[in-house]
Specification:
With 176 residues, this protein is mainly alpha-helical. The protein has seven helices and three strands; from the N terminus they run H-H-E-H-H-E-E-H-H-H. The protein has a three-stranded antiparallel beta sheet.
Amino acid sequence: MAERNDLIGAALLALTPLAVRRRGQELSLTASSTLATLERTGPRRLTDLAGNEGVTQPSMTAVVTQLEDLGLAERRRDPADGRVVLVAITRAGRQYLRSIRRAGASVFTALVDKLPEEDVAALNAALPALRHMLDLAAEGETRDPRLPDGRTAPAPRASRPQGGLDRSSVDVEVNQ
């Protein structure tokens, strides 16, 4: 069973670069991932974003400045504490994420279109399991990862696909 799961994992991982190559080149993977985090979690402090993405605070400052310059994110005051500045995704940022998700999904759609009907049926049958995997991945992102000695583990940079693909984006793409 473990060997079969390794093969499934390897096959899914091998498909990832196909979608990543189709993304717009105006943003880095970190910037796209930051946008997806903002979409998923709502406004966040710059320091929280840096920790989540596994980069330094000065690097995240540069990423957020780029996102602001492109109109994809904005800085705003925290209503609960006016001294705190939060970063939030804009409507244009949400539209950008939708477009890169569609571009990535189109790669797979084109490949699925080339498959024999029995393979397409097998993929359709696997959709509930794939959605469950996305739920498990999202659940893992909300936990405080601890190392065996009790220290907090560093946030993984590549814990989710570029563009922040989550179950809701799969539902949107599948149901369109």
